[in-house]
Amino acid sequence: MPNTTPFETVEFVGAGPGDPDLLTVGALRALQGAGIILHDRLIPQAILALAGPDAQLIDVGKAGFGPSTPQERINDLIVHHATQGARVVRLKAGDTTLFARLDEEVAACDAANIPWRILPGITSAAAAAAALGQSQTSRGRNSSVRYLTGHDVKGFADHDWAALARPGSVAAIYMGKSAARFVQGRLLMHGADPATPVSVIENASRPDQRVLAVTLATLPAILAAADLDGPALIWLGLPPRAAALSHTRKEFA
């Protein structure tokens, strides 16, 4: 049965890792046509500047262990503005479907009978792998790759550490800066080689991109000394290629 509500469609839009060149055409069109844009804290000004001149920008960001907009408040704002007839864009960093609490916001729209659609974006793991000059999968090395979060609602997230500790395993760890020592301990406990290459990519794809080339053994200490203040992704099992680092800040340890 077709939807007969007077509401505009809510668009859940992935902003990509930060470089405006990595926006999809669909994302750009959504930004230019939006009346209300509810955006994450990590969306750079260069992307917000692409919004239409009449768009209202509302920061609903979350900061790890810092000030955050409650999820219930975000849900209420989406529903409120959509029911007022505004074209709402919920702009999320990276990809809308990965560690972005999409399900909760879609459920809020469904409960209010508001139509919606999802526009995926490039996730930061893809941009970080590109910064390293690496393929996420490679014949003879790994035929699968895992996307993990360092934290869940209960604290440090648990995973299949035995599988991750095997030689050749490759995994992208989101929100892993404060969980680095926990991750290191679990992997070493399950037999991972301390010399396993690890790369930390801060602000992937952005002008201030920074790459730390470390090992599992040195990861927590180097992270603590580096004092990263931007979003960072940890690639387990992927070292950077030297040729890929010619235009980025890099450190080795």
Automatic annotation (TrEMBL):
InterPro entries: 4pyrrol_Mease, 4pyrrol_Methylase_sf, 4pyrrole_Mease_sub1, 4pyrrole_Mease_sub2, CobA/CysG_C, Siro_Cobalamin_biosynth, Uropor_MeTrfase_CS. Keywords: Methyltransferase, Porphyrin biosynthesis, S-adenosyl-L-methionine, Transferase. The keyword RNA-binding does not apply. It comes from the Bacteria. GO terms for molecular function: uroporphyrin-III C-methyltransferase activity. Pathway: Porphyrin-containing compound metabolism; siroheme biosynthesis; precorrin-2 from uroporphyrinogen III: step 1/1. Pfam families: TP_methylase. CDD domains: SUMT (cd11642). Residues 11-219 form the Tetrapyrrole methylase domain. Its EC number is 2.1.1.107. It is an enzyme of class 2 (transferase). One of its GO terms (biological process) is methylation. Belongs to the precorrin methyltransferase family. This is uroporphyrinogen-III C-methyltransferase. It comes from Pontibaca salina.
